Known about the structure:
The protein has 206 residues and is mainly alpha-helical. It has one domain (2-204). It is 83% helix and 0% strand. The chain contains ten helices and no strands. The protein has helices at 2-17, 21-33, 35-42, 44-59, 63-89, 105-114, 117-124, 126-133, 136-164, 170-204. α1 runs parallel beside α9 (136-164), α3 (35-42) runs antiparallel to α9 (136-164) and α5 (63-89) packs antiparallel against α10. It is globular and about 50 Å long.
Amino acid sequence: MSEFFFSALSFGLAAGLKPGPLGVIVIQQTLAKGLLSGFRASLAPLITDGPIIIAALCLLSNFKSIHLFVALLSLVGGVYLIWLARKILAIKEILLAGKLSTESSILQAVKVNLLNPSPYLFWFTVGGAYILRGSALESTVFVSTAILTLIASKFAMALLAAFFRPVLESRGYLLVMKALGLSMVFFGMASICQAYVLLQTSGSSF
């Protein structure tokens, strides 16, 4: 049991604290709309990971389809991230109390996470293997610990962003938002490159 708990804890912390599209959305929403909005965005894995886990367990026996599916998802996700980056980089006026978007923070975070290949790659490989290997209780502990640790890590990022928000002047806030936009471009391009590699892999396996 302890193996499943501590493995999930380490996986959740690593996924939650590393830079990524969901983390960028959490920080952006916190800075733009406040801590509550950032907290809502950090809850996206509660909505997205359940269907991903079910899909992973259903498709683990068909590796060709998995590679092709994740490749197409990476391509669509990369384009979507670059589109979001364009919106952020186009910001001219900075209003700390204003809004960057009328879209719900949780809705935007869910869309980003569903189009992010990382959760699929994890649950289709390491995560799925742990679930299939463990008992019902061990698998439940693994899934719940991994997801709750991921959410807690993202919320910690929101708290950090909210804590530093009062000391941000308009120019500093603008620079932060531009940096977030550029990071979105980076993640988008990386996702498109990953799609190309996966398509090459899936093509060679036919």
